[in-house]
Amino acid sequence: MFSSFMVNTWIVASIVAATAGLVGFFVVVRGSSFAAHALPLSTFPGAAAAAWLGINEIAGLVIFALLGVIGIDALSRRGRPEVATALTLVLLLGLGTLFLSQTAEYSQEVYGLLFGQILGIGARDIAPIAVVCALAAGAIVLLFRPLLLGSVSRELAQARGAAPGRLDLAFLIILAMASAVALPVVGALLVFSLMVGPASAARNLTDRPGLALGLSVMLSLIIGWAAIALSYVTNWPVGFFVGGFGAVAYALGRSGLRFGVVGSVRA
Amino acid sequence: MIGGGFFGNGPVQVALLIGGGAAVVSAVVGVFTVMRGQSFAGHALADISSAGGSASLLLGIPALAGFLAMAALGAGGMEMIGARQIRERDLVTGIVLGAGLGLTALFLYLDISTTSASGAANTVMFGSMFAIAPGTVPFALGVGALALAVSVVLYRPLLLIAIDPDLAAIRGVNARLLGLLHLLVLAVAVALSAMTIGAILSTALLIGPAAAALRVATRPVWAIVLAVTIGLVATWGGIALAYDSFYWTPGHGWPVSFFVVVIVVASYAAAGPVGGALARRRATALPAPVSGFEPGG
Q: What transmembrane ranges does the database entry give (chain A) (predicted)?
């Protein structure tokens, strides 16, 4: 499990899971679950396009993640945000099916991209993934106060001089970056579970934002590591474990809240 | 452009029939879904249904039965965990969605490793319009008709609850029961579309035509009629184009799902200016608009 060819996977998974826990906290407090689900999914055709055009996979993913942000942002200006999200998602996925139909040899990899694979990471992928994750984490730290304030009350944030529209866009970009790099390991469909499960459990366990953020990162790391270890042992897909553990974390957080087990932690 | 034998081709006939049925049911249910702000729930149910689609390959039962069963289970799960606030509702939807997709991952893995169905991921997630078993037609159309009938019966209370939940509560509408019934009808719609254009793309038929229609129409009935029209044009147009595309790039036909999505998104884009022009015309024709119905803004 810790043999040389798995080292890259452990490094990347740790970076990606920590970032997912960080970004996921704001996905949960801001209520942007749909965007967090749609962005990784609309990023997925980027890998197919990259294979088709022969460019770097991470680059393809990042480009499509940004296309997803542009689509959601542009369509939200004129209609309902959730309709905008849904339509951007299907448009980019529709493009994905087209790419896939034209490159027959690529269709074997669809499954890995959708549901995750632990052996898909090469040593040369680590540096770009680490850079993108560092940028996303840095942006979260910089925008910590306005993001938190904006999620509690848009009016209050506006009164303090933050532009909600611009903040929304900034957050979408951070979300897109974090999803793009998590995709090759966890899979397009379950990046979102790694973001939402730990963060929602953390939020149910404590009301203090700093503590919740730390808990969210910790849970996300634990889930990520456990999923990879189990996937290695059983050969079952990483995504199955991530999705399942995410739901368990949420259920535990909610029952903890209900029975007041963690009352002392709540400030 | 349509080569000879289009309508005489067996798989095409099945695709036209089931695709048409899926488009009609999705468009009708979609109007209520968009009005109630449940696009995410609709998309999530479709994704969750993929676990059923992939399990059906493993169990050797009809794909539609699998899609249906899992979508209905997902609907029940969301309703059971239930949440009042929209934010919490989205979160619950997301958690159920994640767990469902985890199952899909597992079933597809088992499909690929035990039944050597290497294309299973593609079929379930991106649809198999031209590979539907002809025997499924009566079952699919029957379930679709049932879902439509329920929508017609629930038309008034659903509309009321979509426009004004408080008024609906005063009138004694049982929001919880209605919500569950709506989710179940939604489950039928997404299962039908999942079988045709794929689980993760069925959102195109559910949300696209309805959202486009609601930008243009000011009355719910017209929104439904328009959504059904757009849905049918997209599906049948998509089938015809995909059939034709076998001659464009030899060896690689273009997928139906791609054309359906493009037509749907194009009609949504076109609906904006058309709706705006109509609104201006109404504003000049009538001194004061009296309609209490606000389409999605």
A: 7-29, 49-72, 84-106, 126-148, 169-192, 212-233, 240-257
